[in-house]
Structures
1.
Amino acid sequence: MGPVQLRGSDLMERTSEEGLVRRTTADTVGTAGIEMNDMSSKHTHESSMGSSQDKSTTALLPTTAPNGAEETTLAPQAEPTYKVYKRRWLGFAQLVLLNIMVSWGWLSYAPVANTAASYFSTTPAAINWLNVGFFFAFVVISPLTNYTLAKFGPRSSILAAAAFLILGNWIRYAGTRSTPPSYAAVMVGQVLIGFAQPFVLAAPTSFSDLWFTPRGRITATAITTLANPLGGAL
C-alpha cells in the first residue's frame, strides 16, 4: 500500500493530541520534582533540627562541653565523724551478762532432769517441758520485742530483759524453796525468763549501731550475740 495522506483536520488533531501528551508528561515530571524538593528540604530541616538538638544536649553535658566552657565538678564530701563515749562499755557488758544469764535459766534443769523430777515429785518428761515452755514464751513475746526496739530503742529492751530475768529467777527460787517444792511456780518463772531472751538477742544490733563507730559495730554485735550460746555452754 502507498503512503497514507492525512487531511489537514486530521493532522491538526494528531498534533494537538501529541502536544497534550507532552504537556501532561511535563506536568507529571514537574510535580515529581517539586515533591522530591519538598522531601529533600524536609529531610534537611529535620537533620538541622537533630543537629541543633544534639548540640544543645552536648552543651548540657559537662564532659562534652565545647572548648572554653566551664565544666561543673562536685567537690568531695568529707566523711562523717563519730563521737563515742566510755559509758558504752557499761551497756556492752550488760548485754553480754544478760545473754549468758538467759541461757543459764534456759538449761539449768536439763543436765539434772532425773534429780529434779525426784525433787519435785514429777517425771523427767515434765522437767523437759520447762525447756519447751521457755521457747513458747520466746515466740509469744517476739512481736512486743520488735515494737519495743523500734519505738523506744535498745535501752528499754535491756531494762525489760533485766526485769523479766530478775522476776523469773526469784519465782523459780521461791518454788524450789517452798514446802513441798512447787513445780508450777518453777514453770511460771521459766516462762518469764523465756520472755527475757528475745529482748537481749535482738538488742545488740541496735545498741552497737547507736553507740559504736562503723569499725567497732561488727565486733560489738558479734560478741554480745555469741554470749548467748556461751552461757549455754557454761
Note: Residues 1-26, 28-37, 39-61 have pLDDT under 50 and may be disordered.
2.
Amino acid sequence: MASYEVEHNVPAPDPSSQARTPRRPDLSTFFSTLEHVDTSDVANSNALPVPGEVSAAFRTLGEAYQRMGAYRSGEGPLDGMVEWLISNAEAPPKEVKGVSQGFLDELERVPKKLLKPSMDCPICGNPFLEDEYPLVVRLPCNKNHMFDLECIAPWLKLHATCPLDRKDLVKEKEPPPPPKDEEEDGEWDDMYA
C-alpha cells in the first residue's frame, strides 16, 4: 500500500524537523456536546437541556482549557475560566446562557496587518502571528480585548461575558425613545379620521 504522500503527490515531511505541539486541543467532543445543550438558536424558547449534558459541556471545555494552561507560564484569565467551568460542571445551571452563532459571526475581525509580533491570545498564550492565517476577533467591550476565534468561541457559547473584564456582551439594549412629533399642539389631523 502506498503512503499518503505518494498517493497525493505531496512531498514527505522532513523527519529531522521536530513535531510541533498543536496550537489548541481538539474541541470536537465539546462542540458535539454543545449541540445538545445550546438553546440559543432553537425555535422553542421553553426547551431546556438535560443537566448531565450541560455538565459534560462545561467539563469538556474546562479540561481542554486546563490542557492549554499546561503550556502557559504564569497566571492569566485562563485560570479563572477553568475554575468557573469546573464549578459549573459540578453544579450545572438549568440553561446555558451563551451567545448565538450569529453573534460570533458578527464579531469584528482583526486584519493580520494590524497584528504585532508581541500580541498573543489571552487564552492559549500563542502569538497571533504564529498562525499563517490568524482568525482574530475583537470583543465589543474593549478595543484591546482580542482573541483567537477558536479559543473564545467555546467560552462565549457557554458564557456571554468577556473573560478579561466579565462585562456582559449581550446586554439587552434599551430601545431608543420615540421621536417627538413636530406637530404636538393638539390639532386634529383629518388624515386619520
Note: Residues 119 and 127 are 6 Å apart (CA to CA).
